[in-house]
Automatic annotation (TrEMBL):
Species this protein is from: Litorilituus sediminis
SMART domains in alphabetical order: AAA (SM00382)
Superkingdom of source: Bacteria
Protein name from the UniProt record: ABC transporter ATP-binding protein
Stored InterPro entries: AAA+_ATPase (IPR003593), ABC_AA/LPS_Transport (IPR051120), ABC_transporter-like_ATP-bd (IPR003439), BCA_ABC_TP_C (IPR032823), P-loop_NTPase (IPR027417)
Length: 267
C-alpha cells in the first residue's frame, strides 16, 4: 500500500448545537489527488478548515507527515509543508502579483531583523535570490509572467485564482488544500486550472486535497473521491465506484435507484 501523507481520524466539529462534521475518517496517499464532494452545507470547507488549522475539531485527530497536527496553528502546519487556497480569494489586492507570491515564501526565510541590516555581509542576499528563483519557476509554470508586475486587485477573477494557487505553491508544500479552485471560471479557465493541478501533482510531486463542484473535473483528475452529506462520510473510493453508489446518486445527484432502472428500461 502507498504511504499516507494525511490521516483524518474520527473528526467531529460542532458550532453550538449545529453539527458540521460527525466522526469522519479517511487517509490520503502521498502523491495523489484526493477530492471531497457533496451538496452545499455538507461540511466540505469545515473539513478543510480542520485540516489546515483554522478550526479545531471537538474530537478526533489529524496526522500530517506522521506528526499529530490536531492542535497546531495554521502557520505551524505551513512550516511542516501544508499549503492552502480559499474559496473566497485572500490575496493582497493592493500588492503586485510578484509580491503576493513572495509572501508565500516568508515562512521559509531564515534571516531576521537582526541579520537583515547586514544584508550584504551575511547570507541574506543569497537566500533572497534563491527564494526569487523558485518564485520565478512557479510564475513560469502557471504562465503568469505577463502579469507579474500587475496589481492583484486589478486582475480578472480567473487570473487572481491562478495567483492564489501560485502563492500556495510558493510554500513548496508537500500537501496543498484547494477550496473550489474552479468556482466562477469559464470553461477555458477550468480546463487550464485542471491542467495546472495535474501538472503540479505530477511534476512538483505535490499531494492535492481538493473541494470541487465540477463533477467532470473531479472524475477526470482525481485518484480518490470522498462524499460528505450532512457532515457524515457516505463513501470514499475510486471515482467510478463513488459515482456508481446509489447513496451518492440520491444524496448528491438527486437520482433515485428506481428512476435509473426506468431510464434504462425506456432506452
Amino acid at each position: 500500500m502507498a504511504e499516507s501523507i494525511l490521516k483524518v481520524e474520527h473528526i467531529s466539529l460542532a458550532f453550538g448545537g449545529v453539527k458540521a462534521l460527525t466522526d469522519v475518517s479517511f487517509s490520503v496517499e502521498r502523491g495523489s489527488i484526493f477530492s471531497i464532494i457533496g451538496p452545499n452545507g455538507a461540511g466540505k470547507t469545515s473539513m478543510l478548515n480542520c485540516i489546515s488549522g483554522r478550526y479545531r475539531p471537538n474530537a478526533g485527530t489529524i496526522t500530517f507527515n506522521k506528526q499529530d497536527v490536531t492542535k497546531l496553528r495554521p502557520n505551524d502546519r505551513a512550516d511542516l509543508g501544508m499549503g492552502r487556497t480559499f474559496q473566497n480569494l485572500a490575496l493582497f489586492g493592493h500588492m503586485t502579483v510578484l509580491d503576493n507570491i513572495m509572501v508565500g515564501r516568508h515562512h521559509l526565510l531564515k534571516n531576521n531583523w537582526i541579520t537583515g541590516p547586514l544584508y550584504w555581509a551575511t547570507k541574506a542576499q543569497k537566500e533572497e535570490l534563491a527564494h526569487r528563483r523558485y518564485v520565478e519557476e512557479v510564475i513560469d509554470f502557471l504562465e503568469i509572467s505577463h502579469i507579474r508586475k500587475s496589481v492583484a486587485g486589478t486582475l480578472s477573477y480567473g487570473l487572481r485564482k491562478r495567483v492564489e494557487l501560485a502563492r500556495a505553491m510558493a510554500l513548496k508544500p508537500d500537501l496543498i488544500l484547494l477550496d473550489e479552485p474552479m468556482a466562477g471560471m469559464n470553461l477555458e479557465e477550468k480546463e487550464d486550472m485542471a491542467r495546472y493541478i495535474l501538472d503540479l501533482n505530477e511534476e512538483f510531486g505535490i499531494t492535492v486535497v481538493m473541494i470541487e463542484h465540477d463533477m467532470g473535473v473531479v472524475m477526470d483528475i482525481s485518484h480518490q473521491v470522498m462524499v460528505l452529506d450532512f457532515g457524515k462520510k457516505l463513501i470514499c473510493g475510486l471515482p467510478d465506484e463513488v459515482m456508481a453508489d446509489p447513496h451518492v446518486k440520491r444524496a448528491y445527484l438527486g437520482i433515485e435507484e428506481d428512476a435509473d432502472s426506468d431510464i434504462l428500461e425506456a432506452s
